[in-house]
Design brief:
about 850 residues, alpha+beta, seven-stranded mixed β-sheet, three-stranded antiparallel β-sheet, about 30% helix, disordered C terminus, DNA-binding
DNA sequence: GTTTTGCATGAATCG
DNA sequence: GATTCATGCAAAACA
């Protein structure tokens, strides 16, 4: 992985993953200031980051002599050119007018820290950097009067930049001056990284052979960049457009950092190649293509493509695929300006079929059309799905539209997004390319890459801060999450249950009680707040308590059950226990108890441990009791989360609750397709299935019962609970012991508010049961005692297990299964006996 | 029931 | 404030 090292001899901080994540670069842009010491990173080039082939040597752009890569040991040996590449010092000093940037090294002994000071900075900007006060200097630059090049925001001012002397002037040469000038002329204080970013976004090819003098629209066919079958389109005219082209002053406005461009801009620093080329002007002489659509194709890519296609390739524009573009709808939204500039004019909304060739020569036919939209048009290419799939593109990848000259045929290339690499093979080594490391692939070149064109420059990419990505737009505002690096995503990965553990109702919020399915829920107008994570326990006596860890001393304090803590909480905030309101006071809990507590609170699998009777020692009894209590409260067989404070979503439910309400996405939006495999849908389906099975079973039981009643006198021990065994009595008996626990559990779930039982015995489908429970229930109902039942039994309070002899367990479980089969769902604790009507009618759905 | 189609909406960006 | 464009969504078409 590439790395940068702060050049401050006393700092020497390196960019590392930890660094990036922990405190990052200060500038928010690409490394500009060491966050550690504040020294400038700018202009410093280091081996791993910059040189393409790991040789450590590069070539002077001017004299072609090898120079060192710029590692610390040889940091004075060369200059890093604004417009890309490096040059040896000797050449640098002779490069008048080529905006050679001085190497800026803290502690540098060079006079003024400047090399190539004669470089003609057209801006009159002081060509040196005060290494010790980079920010100040940048500020100063901002106020430089001669700034010719404005901020990025002055997008369109690019056209008023320095005039080009002749049409045939190569792009690169132009940029060498202008871009370099723009670097120091960048007055953007708001985006401190801009200077660097611009530099790298603007750097040009060492030998760009793509000249704007390309007779745009003067292909042999005389047609402007159109698909072969599209006739009758406007011919490319010279006039305003081409004149504009001739006079086009190419200071490629640094493109807006699109998802790829942003990363590539950084990558460009590495490869010094991927620059946004002002595209060929399109039809109608309109040249307002936003730079984000400027094709960013390297020379090599162009050459390669041209070689492959044996034609001259004129890059037109590119677009980063949005989720919609890459989705199954098969519609690729074309930027309006691009569509109108490079595609045939259409008057009808239906548009025209248009043939576009991919880089393999395969021809695709799309429907080029538009929709009216806000008095404007929205251009789309329809039917792109096969092509997209063929190219294996996805959201974030870039499609590049080019034109073949002669012929004017449209070609569609692509470049894989570097972001996607993250999910693939981050280990992919840099390709030894003359173009620099981590080069993304353009179209077919990707085929030759081991990872399908996804390159490893994500290592550089990782250094693109989110602030920069934030500006990215092309992937869509709603898709910005796609920009998140996988590592970042990992950092943020948190389950909904975990979130619920942390959410609290806003302290000032007052809930509205709504009743859904006879269940009361508290709805809050205000957004929830994050609270402190606590652990709830229940003693075998049924007492509920809550444990919180002091943020200051890390000691654990016992708190009343109903308390909701803020995110930050210390011992001094312990107003409920004056004896434990200081960090100086030792823990409320012994180490062993603490261990058990943490095991309960921390490890979602702790119940497995408990079930395995590990550490069922006295010190862990409370924990076990907690488990049992929470199991009783939530779900007997639920291996879910520890019982923690009420959630905001519906505080009756505790974090970890995976009932159908809790597992719904927070927005509640989005419709579920019948094929949807989401938890909600699966749960509903499963429960429906369970319900039907229950009904069926019940019906058969009734029939059998009726038949039995006809034949004989009912069995003596048969209670009137519709076949309920005596086991249920055992359970009920057990419940009587624990009911208070369960009851209080319910109470606490509503933060003290009394809420009614969730029991499904009222003849409703219980949507609050644990979705994973039904299968177990089903198995139990049909197969009698199962392993699950045994496991569940282990969740019964130890007291019960010990007080009741083990042999009663079988009966108990059997009856439990029977009771469950009768629709008494255990999720909310024990069967609510009150709901079990004689005759088992309570299970009616 | 699924897919396609056309439009509406609103965030982001531009001027 | 205007414009662009990604996306949601409902109706229509299709299987």
């Amino acid at each position: 992985m590439g790395s940068m090292i702060c050049m401050n001899e006393l700092c020497r901080a390196t960019t590392s993953v930890e660094w990036k994540k922990g405190w990052g670069f200060k500038s928010g842009g690409f490394a500009k200031l060491c966050y550690n010491c504040g020294s400038a990173f700018e202009n410093l080039v280091f081996c791993e980051t910059f040189h393409p082939d790991e040789s450590g040597w590069r070539e002077c752009r001017t004299c072609r002599k090898p120079i060192h890569c710029g590692c610390i040991a040889s940091k004075y040996l060369y200059e890093y050119l604004d417009y890309g590449g490096v040059t040896c010092i000797k050449c640098a000093r002779h490069l008048d007018g080529h905006s050679i940037r001085p190497i800026q090294i803290p502690g540098d002994d060079f006079p003024n820290g400047t090399l190539g000071s004669k470089s003609a900075q057209p801006l009159g900007v002081e060509n040196k950097i005060d290494e010790n006060d980079f920010e100040r200097r940048r500020l100063m630059q901002t106020n430089e009067p001669g700034q010719l090049f404005q901020t990025q925001r002055n997008d369109k001012k690019q056209d008023t930049m320095l005039p080009i002397g002749n049409v045939g002037t190569c792009f690169s040469n132009l940029n060498q001056q202008n871009i370099g000038a723009s670097l120091f002329g960048k007055p953007d204080n708001e985006r401190p990284s801009q200077g660097v970013k611009d530099m790298y976004e603007s750097i040009n090819q060492p030998s760009l052979n793509f000249c704007l003098s390309t007779p745009i629209g003067t292909s042999s066919s005389g047609q402007p960049f159109l698909g072969g079958d599209v006739e009758g389109r406007e011919q490319s005219k010279t006039s305003p457009f081409q004149q504009g082209q001739r006079a086009r002053h190419i200071l490629p406005k640094p493109p807006k950092p699109s998802p790829t461009s942003g990363s590539e801009s950084v990558k460009g620093m590495a490869s010094q190649a991927r620059i946004a080329r002002p595209p060929a002007e399109g039809r109608g002489g309109r040249s307002q293509l936003l730079p984000r659509y400027w094709p960013r194709i390297t020379d090599q890519e162009l050459e390669k493509l041209a070689g492959d296609l044996k034609s001259t390739i004129v890059p037109l524009f590119e677009k980063v695929l949005s989720a919609s573009d890459a989705g199954r709808i098969g519609r690729l939204v074309l930027p309006k300006a691009c569509a109108e500039a490079y595609f045939p004019p259409i008057n009808q909304s239906e548009g025209l079929p248009i043939r576009i060739q991919d880089i393999k020569g395969k021809e695709w036919t799309f429907q080029f059309r538009f929709w009216p939209n806000n008095n404007s048009r929205m251009y789309v290419l329809e039917g792109v799905t096969p092509c997209i799939q063929n190219m294996q593109l996805q959201a974030g990848d870039t499609v590049i539209f080019s034109r073949i000259d002669p012929g004017g045929k449209l070609v569609m290339g692509f470049r894989k997004a570097t972001n996607n690499v993250d999910m693939q093979d981050p280990q992919t080594p840099n390709l030894p390319s003359g173009n620099g490391s981590g080069e993304t692939s353009f179209s077919g070149m990707a085929d030759n890459l081991p990872n399908g064109g996804r390159t490893s420059d994500d290592t550089v990419n990782r250094q693109v801060p989110m602030s920069e990505k934030k500006k990215a737009r092309n992937i869509g505002s709603k898709n910005k999450r796609l920009l998140m690096h996988a590592d970042d995503a990992m950092e943020l990965r948190i389950t909904w249950e975990e979130i619920q553990e942390l959410l609290r109702p806003s302290p000032t919020a007052k809930p509205n009680i709504v009743v859904v399915e006879d269940c009361e829920f508290e709805e809050y107008e205000e957004a929830p707040v994050f609270g402190k994570r606590t652990i709830f326990t229940a003693r075998s006596s049924g007492d509920q308590e809550q444990w919180a860890q002091c943020d200051s001393c890390a000691k654990w304090r016992r708190l009343p059950f109903h308390v909701l803590l803020p995110a930050k909480w210390t011992c001094s905030d312990n107003i409920w226990d004056s004896r434990r309101c200081s960090c100086a006071i030792p823990d409320d809990i012994s180490p062993r108890e603490l261990e058990a507590l943490l095991r309960v609170g921390k490890d979602p699998k702790r119940r497995k441990l408990v079930e395995n009777n590990e550490d069922l020692e006295s010190s862990g009894l409370d924990a076990l009791a907690t488990v049992a209590a929470s199991d009783m409260g939530d779900s007997i067989g639920d291996m879910g989360e520890p019982s923690v404070g009420a959630t905001t979503k519906h505080p009756r439910h505790r974090p970890g609750c995976s009932c159908i309400v809790c597992i719904q996405p927070p927005s509640g939006k989005g419709k579920h397709h019948p094929t949807c495999k989401c938890n909600v849908c699966l749960t509903v389906k499963r429960r429906f299935k369970t319900l039907m099975l229950r009904k069926k079973k019940k019906q058969s039981e009734r029939e059998a019962e009726l038949a039995q009643a006809k034949d004989q006198v009912p069995p003596k021990d048969e209670p009137e609970t519709d076949g309920m065994t005596s086991g249920i009595e055992l359970l009920q008996m057990n419940h009587s012991e624990n009911e208070h626990m369960n009851h209080s559990d319910n109470e606490r779930n509503s933060n003290g508010d009394q809420v009614e039982e969730f029991g499904p015995g009222k003849g409703q489908l219980d949507l609050n049961c644990h979705p994973n429970r039904d299968d177990d229930m089903l198995a139990e109902a049909t197969a009698g005692m199962s392993m699950t039942s045994l496991v569940n039994a282990t969740n019964l309070p130890l007291e019960y297990l010990t007080q009741n002899r083990l042999e009663s367990l079988g009966n108990s479980l059997l009856s439990q299964a029977a009771s469950e089969s009768e629709g008494h769902h255990p999720d909310n604790g024990f069967v609510k006996t009150a709901d079990v009507e004689p005759g088992g009618k309570g299970a009616e759905a």
